[in-house]
Amino acid sequence: MRVNVRQREGVTILDLKGKITIGVGDVALREAIHEALSAGAKKILVNLGDVSTIDSSGVGELVSAYTTVTNRGGKLKLLDLPPKVADILQITQLITVFDVFEGEDEALKSF
Amino acid sequence: MPADSLPFHLTIGSRFENIELVQAVLADALGAYDLDAESRHWIDLAVREAIANAIQHGNRLEPDKRVEIDLELGPEELVVRVRDEGEGFDPGELNDPLAPENRLRPNGRGIFYMQKFMDQIDYDFRPGRGTQVTLRKRLSGGADGEVAAPTAAERPKPDES
Asked: How far is A14 from A20, CA to CA, in rounded Å?
């Protein structure tokens, strides 16, 4: 999985591309979150629009990211869920935990 | 759809990157069936979870320990058997990942995935010989041969198998 990090309107946006799966993608996500927090980010938007697969480890990493950021007084939100990722979050009943947005502008305004 | 069973046997070391090798073989094997992309995706995900569990929880990430995978593709059913060299576990002791107190736990969803995306999951614990999980999926459940995509309305419990 590839992670591109950018800043917009005071929000750190992580654009994820590929598979968030065990051993590779989940580790990349964890490192990206930790780097953002180390850089002082309090508002993090995770763009999942180009994610093709998310396994249980990937879901676990999203949950860890959410709790880590929240426990440090920050906010983590999700952007552009592909249908298969949305299905997974529905099935695991995590869809109600995360703030999810379909457009970047709307997501940015919500912080 | 193929008329006869078509078996594959693979042995991999306990490294997560080897999951991709199995996925390539599975994708090729499923190519013989008239399945839509979404159905393939959910099967792919369930098999991925079984192998990841064998590597992580069964073989404890010891790269020299092997995971054996058998794929049997009959005319109407896919059967996947995944064996590790681990100590085994009791599925009845697993937490329900949908319980409110477990929902924000980072782990404990792998078997839930398998149960969700396949029709039947069975475990075989053999002391000293590792654990085998068997996943079954009907490949011709509907009139058009589609595998049903999971829906949020379905709520299997972790100890269903």
From this structure: 13
